[in-house]
C-alpha cells in the first residue's frame, strides 16, 4: 500500500514537471474565471435643431430688401405651415416672379386662387406672369376675371389692353388703355403702353400726348423718355427727340436702346425742325381727351 502511494506521488510529480516544460499549452486551457468585458457607452450624435418656422413679417422684410429668391424660399416655408392662407401663396408668387422663376410664380398664384377665387391681386399678377410666358389668351381671361370682381381696377384694364394688343386686337387694346386712364388719370404705365401701341401702329403724332404725360408724371423713367423720343423722332421732331433720348440716358446710362436711338438721330443728315416742340401743348390736349374718356366711361357703366 505504501509502495502504491509512492507510485501515485511519483506519477503526479512527473505530470507536474511535464506541464511546466510546456508553458505554451496553458494558453489553450479555458480559465475557470470568466472574462468580463465592460461595454463602452455609444457615442450619441446630437439631433439637429428643428428649423424655426418663418413668419410672414420676416419673409416680407426680405422681399422689401429685394432679395426675391430668398423671400420666395421663406414664403414657401411660411405657406407650408399656413396652407389655408392665400396671402402666403400670393407673396410666394410675387417673390418668385420678381426672381424670374415664372413656373413657380404661376403655381403659387393658382394655389392662392384655389383658396380664394376672388383674390384679385393673384388674378392680376397671374395675368402678368402669363403675359411674360407668352400666353396672352389665358392672361386675357384672368384679367377679365379681375374686372368681373372689380370693374374700377385700372390694373385689370391695363392688362386687358396688353393682352389684346399681343393678340393683335388693336382697337380693343386702345379702348382698354383709355378706360384704365379714365379710372386713374395718374396711371403713367397705361399712358406708356397706349403710346407704345400707337407707335407700333404708325400713329406717331397721336402717341406724343400720352407719352409726354407719362414723362411728366415720372421724369426718372428711362423707358418713358425713350418711347417719347421715338414718337417725336418718327413725327419729324428730331431736336425734341434728341432731348428725350438724352434724358433717358441721364436716367440710366446703361439703357442701350436710348443710346442707339440718340446716335441714329445725330447721324441723320437733315433735321426736319429747327426748334423743339412745346410738349405742354400735347399734354394739355391729352388731358382734355382724358376728360372725354371719363365721361364716356361713366355713361357706359351708368355711374
Concise description?
Helices cover 70% and strands 0% of the residues. It has 303 residues and is an all-alpha fold.
Helix percent reads 55-70%
Low-confidence stretches: 1-33
CATH homologous superfamily of the domain at 186-303? Answer: Tetratricopeptide repeat domain
Shape verdict? globular
At CATH's second level, what is the architecture of the domain at 186-303? Alpha Horseshoe
CATH class of the domain at 186-303: Mainly Alpha
DSSP strand content: under 5%
The helix count comes to 15
The name CATH uses for the topology of the domain at 186-303 is Serine Threonine Protein Phosphatase 5, Tetratricopeptide repeat
Overall SS class? mainly alpha
The count of strands amounts to 0
**Rounded radius of gyration (Å):** 41 Å
Descriptive notes:
This protein is 70% helix and 0% strand. With 303 residues, it is mainly alpha-helical. It has a domain at 186-303: Tetratricopeptide repeat domain (Serine Threonine Protein Phosphatase 5, Tetratricopeptide repeat). α6 (120-132) runs antiparallel to α7 and α9 (170-183) runs antiparallel to α10 (188-200).
